[in-house]
Each structure stands twice: as C-alpha cells, then as structure tokens.
Amino acid sequence: MAVISEQIAKPDSEPRLLISDLCRQLDSYLDADQVREVYRAYLFSAEAHEGQQRVSGEPYIYHPLAVAQILADMRMDYKSITAAILHDVIEDTGTAKEQIAKAFGEEVAELVDGVSKLTQITFESQAEAQAENFRKMMLAMVRDIRVILIKLADRLHNMRTLGVMPPAKRRRIARETLDIYAPIANRLGMNNMRLELEDLGFSAYYPMRARILAEAVKRARGNRKEILSKIETAIKARLEHDGIPGHVHSREKHLLSLYQKMRGKRLSFNDVFDVYAFRVVVENVDTCYRVLGVVHSLYKPVPGRFKDYIAIPKSNGYQSLHTVLFGPYGVPIEVQIRTDDMDRVAESGIAAHWLYKGGDDGTGGAHARAREWLRELLEMQKHAGNSLEFLENVKIDLFPDEVYVFTPRGKIMELPRGATAVDFAYAVHTDVGNTCIAAKIDRRLAPLRTPLLNGQTVEIITAPGAHPNPSWLNFAVTGKARSNIRHYLKNLRREEAVSLGRRLLDKSLLSLGVAAAESSEARLNETRLGEIAASYGMKTADDLLEDIGLGNRMPMLAARRLLGSDEAGEVSASGGGGAPLVIKGTEGMVVNFAKCCRPIPGDRIVGFVSAGRGIIIHAENCKNIADFRSRPDKWVDVEWEREVSGEFTAELRVEVANQRGVLATVAAAIADMGSNIENVGIEERDGLNTSIAFTITVHDRKHLARVMRRIRHIPLVLRISRAKS
User: For residues 349 and 538, what is the distance between their CA atoms, to the nearest angstrom?
Assistant: First the structure.
C-alpha cells in the first residue's frame, strides 16, 4: 500500500503533526484495538487522497488528520475519530460509501456519508446547493448526532487555515460559519468551539475591525490587571473565610461579543470593556447558592441582573448562576457560579457527556435537550417546501434569546424572545397550534399575537374546526410554528386549486359541445385523466387539476386531450364559450380579487388567469384590464353566484368639512351599518375641506349602497363616491 509519510508539515513553520501523536493521545482513553482501527483508517485515507493537495500546497491528508485531532481533544469515541479521518474520501476521491462500509462497518460509513456534500446533483444557485447540503447533514445528524460534531471539527480546522483562500470565498465561508455553524455549536452547548468559530469568523469577515478591536483590548488589558487581581483576591478570601472550597477565574470577553455589544447598544469600547467577569467553580449545587450569598454580601448586587440557569437550564443544557454586582470604584462585576460538571458541560456541551452516556440513548441534560431539538428539526424538514425554507427555519431556531413561560400545569416551556402565544401553542403540540383560537395569559384573555414575557402562565384555547390563519406568519417567531403554518396553507391551496381546476375543466368540456352529463362522465374518467397527467410529467390526476386551477396550464388543452383531440378549435384556450364560471367568494387562495377595482357581489366581472395565482377577478369597467386585452386566451367568463356569502373590500372617497371629530363621526356611521374599516387614508385638500379614503368590508352592492346612504346623511359630509383604480 502506498502511504505518504506519517509526518506532515504544517505551513508557516508550525509544529509537525504526526499520526503517532494522535495515536498516543487516543491511547490515554481508548482500547488498543480501537486505536489500531483509527490507524488503519489513516492508511486508507492517505492512499485515497494520495497526490491531492490543499490550497496551501500541503498534502490533503493533513486536513482529516487535524479534524481527528480536534475530536480527540474532546475525547470522542473511536468511530467518530475513524469517520473524521475518512470524512472527505467520498466527496473528494473515487471511493464509494459501500467500500467504507465493507472496510470499517456500516456505522462509520453512515457518519462519513452524513458529512459529505451532494456533489452529484446540479443546483440552480449557490444558495440552493448550500441549503440542500445543510438539510442532508441535518437529517443525518438526527439519526446520529456525531455527524454534526465531525462537521463542526471540520469547519473549525477550515477556519483555522482560511487565510490561504481568495478574499470573496473567505468572506462567504466566514459568513456561513457565523450564521450557521457557530450557532449550532452554541445550541449544542459547545462553548469553547463556539468562541473559536466566532472569533475566527469575525476576523475573516471583518479583518480591519477585528484587528483594531484586538489592539484596543491589548492596550486596555494592562490597566485592568490591578483591579482584576484585587477583586479576585477579595472573592477568594471571602470563600476561604466561610470555608467554601472553590476556584475563582477572571474572564475576558471575546472580540465578537465586544463588537456586537458596541454595535447593538451604540456603546464606546471603554463602556463595554469596563465590565469585569469572574467564574467561581465549586463542588455541588448547594454550594453554588451559598457562594451567591457570599458574593452578594461582599459587593452589592445590581437589581434585575440575576439569572438562575441552574433551576431553569438554557436550551443547550447550560447551567450556572449569573449575577452582576457593583464592584470597587463602582465598576460592574459579572459573576458566574457553577459546579465542575456544569463547567465541563458549559465548555464542551454535548461532547462532554459522550463517554458517559452509554450509546445513543443517554439521558444527560445536554443530550436530552439536543435530541428534543433534533426531533423539532425533523418535523420542520417534513413540512418545509424546499431546502431554502428549511434553512431559514433552522436559522430562526439557532438564535434564541430565551423566554421561560409556564403551562397551566406548571411545566416550563422555553421559547425565543419575541415569541407569541401562537409559538407557544405549536411548542406544546402541532395539533394545538393548528386548532388554537385564543389564549389566556396569567388567566386573562389575550390575542394570539401577544408577545410572551418571562414567568407568564399561558393557556391555549382550541376549537375542533379551527385552522391556521395566514396572518399568523406576520408574528410567529419559531421555526416550528412558521413551518407548520406554511405546510397547512400549502395543502389548503392545493385542495382549492384542485377544486377550481375541476370546475374549469368542466367549463371547457361544456364549451366544446359536450353535454353536462357527458362532461361529468368524461371528467370523472380518472384513469384517462391520470394518463394525461403522466404525459405532462405529473404523478396524479390531482397534480394536473392543481396546475389548471393555478393557471399554469390551459383547461381547454386538457379538455381536448381528455376527449381524444389535440387540435385547436375555434374556442379560446382558456375555455371561452359555454356557461360562465360561477364565483362563490369562498374559493380561497386560488381566486383573488383585484385591488385596483375591488369587485364585490353585484358588480359585472371578468376573470384573468394568472400563472401561479389562479384567477384574478376584475370589475368589467376596470381601467387596468385594457392592458390585458392582447391576451384573450387568458380571459375566463365569470359571474357571481346568486347567494354569495362572505365579506369583500370596497374603497370609498369621502370629502368632509375640516372640523374636529368628523373622522370619528364617519367611522361610527360605518360601524353602525355592520361594516368594518380595514384602512383609512387622509389627504388635506385645503384649509376647509379634507378628503378621506376608507377601505371597508361589505357583503355586496346593496350593503355598500346602505353604507354610502348612511354616510351621505351626515351634515359634515360634502361628497361621497366609490373609488376604483
């Protein structure tokens, strides 16, 4: 077997990395047989990558070996180390997944495949390729969480060696790291990795800002040493006086955190850097609360700045007590108090428990929370329309500034800051979210759009026939809520499009001279309809009907195919001729009413087929339809049903005398007539008169006439008219 030298030089005269060094490190916690398996994987990978080089010019095998080293530092299991060494062989060499499975087992092959990008598929854009690769990795992560740990180690080493890349690629990779991979590391509680990814990403994306900030930190550090030493000594002395064993460490904010605070709160460097941070690590939870009392007696606490993450852990399993104190000379001191176990979880997150969790069914806090997040990811992926939407939903979930609320039974629910009652409903269960109609917050009725605050008790009121409202997307915050609402609306739109497609097909059959009974029989020949759908490259007859209903395919052409004739006749392709299509007003999202003329029942109307939107209904006298006269194939004869239910919008122009209270008087008159005001626009004409535009809801022309008559009788109203276009 041809193998490159085990000694691989790092660029810039860094110490050489040896496979023997990795094996020696693995010997400290793995069995000898497992270490030999890792070495065998190294030989396999070295042969597969032979002749390949990285952009820096070094042999490619250095990269997988460095990734394995990062995982070894986290004391990961041997299969993770093996997969790390092999992680690029599927993507970058001619090696197949089956070869890895045969040589190292199915489990290792699945890990390697989970990290590999989709290189065989052509995507329309870089964003789509990135999103689809991310979705593939996330789904593999749901099956085995070690996939994301290998990917994070891979990304960390790539970020450490990013300097050799062209500037544009460097910024793209840095942005991706800051947007996706650092937040994932944070979500999994891997604080050390998150901090390094953030600092490397910040330095690559904003090199000038990072350099200036680093120099400012270096200059200011000397002035802080004396104060830091004094505070640290005071805390240690008080702990010793009270007989509490523990370690006290001073901490320094990393660059990205400093930059974000300066930018977000518009603070100067001195205002942000003038916060002194300390960590106290003790033996057990009881001692944590004793230490809290000790530091509060030593320095006065700042009101409202205490957080108990031990009683209510963060979503990534992080536990600690946080408090802010008034220190000497009035400087603020931030103190974190935690146990040794909590400290280990805080730094390494889910990886900290890997050796102790006993396989994939561990119940440790970090693992339980990670698996709960993964279950939510799986649900989001099922409901996402495409990979870009899935990536958007995951990004939303990766930036949670937590709010903790309670169910009526006292269970704590964690949601991102800004989450509403709708987000809470979907967090409880998808069915609860889909059927919610109202909420009680602290036993008081509140709108579903109400943002939630820490400590509130939330109860969701549901109704069996209720459904998600499209307007919820305007205020829903969590990825789970948004993906479920979108999923429901897509299904609803499909049902409506299929129904409209059937009606349009019926109309086209009638216009071709087929009797009503024959039309029904021809349409209901699902086998024939399915064959036509297949000829268009569709799976089912419903797919064809949906395409017709959405205006993507002409119903006349489908009708001719259904009758066994493809010849174009005298009738227009839209189905002109025959009885007009009846508009009920309840067709949903596939029949839209034009905002330029706002047609209402009683108006003479025409329909225009718009690809992807269905039918747009215009008033017959609308000025804008002149632009579409050149497309007669797109027009559909339509008419209102005799009994139309529902509300429709109309616009009124009201000229009034410019006097106090006139707007309230007109608005009250509209409300008295059972109409709702959706929008009001005021345009002052001169000092005496004012023109007001009202967008109101009415049932039909008769209802609108009654509203206008009532407004006309108001003494201050000079003129009223219905506005069109």
Answer: 47
CB 554 within 8 A of CB 635: no
What are the tens digits of pLDDT across the range 98-146?
Answer: 888 888 998 888 888 877 754 444 445 566 666 666 665 566 566 677 8
Which residue matches tokens 């399915």?
Answer: 530
Q: What percent of the chain has pLDDT over 70?
A: 77
Task: Count CB neighbours of 396 within 10 A.
Answer: 19
Which ranges of 328-440 would DSSP assign to H, the alpha helix? 340-348, 365-383, 387-397, 421-428, 430-434
The size of the chain, in residues, is 725
Contacts of 339 (CB under 8 A, 6+ apart): 281, 282, 283, 284, 285, 287, 288
| Active-site pick, 58, 92, 128, 655 | 92
Contacts of residue 258, defined as CB under 8 A and 6 or more positions apart, other chains included, come to 213, 217, 269, 272, 273
Q: Which residues contact 264 (CB under 8 A, 6 or more apart)?
A: none
Report d(CA 210, CA 259) in Å as an integer.
Answer: 8
- The Cα-based distances of 18 to 55, 184, 372, 539 in angstroms read 21, 30, 39, 56
pLDDT per residue as tens digits for the range 370-405 = 666 666 665 655 555 555 555 555 555 555 567 778
pLDDT in tens, 213-269: 888 888 777 667 778 888 888 999 999 988 899 889 887 777 888 888 888 778 787
Confirm whether 92 is a catalytic residue.
yes
Residue 641 has pLDDT above 70, yes or no: yes
Average pLDDT over residues 630-650: 78
Tokens of 592: 């839209």
Residue 505: helix, strand or coil by DSSP?
helix
Taking the C-alpha atoms of residue 117 and residue 387, their distance in angstroms, rounded to an integer, is: 14
Q: H or E element: which one contains 446?
A: strand 444-446
Using alpha carbons, select from 215, 229, 225, 222 the residue that is nearest to residue 258.
215
Domains and CATH numbers, the chain: 7-205 (1.10.3210.10), 220-349 (3.30.460.10), 366-486 (3.10.20.30), 488-640 (no CATH), 648-722 (3.30.70.260)
pTM higher than 0.85: no
Nearest to 204 by CA among 244, 164, 235, 242: 164
Which candidate in 21, 58, 91, 341 is catalytic? 91
**Known catalytic residue at 402:** no
Spatial distance between the Cα atoms of 182 and 201, rounded to a whole number of angstroms: 9
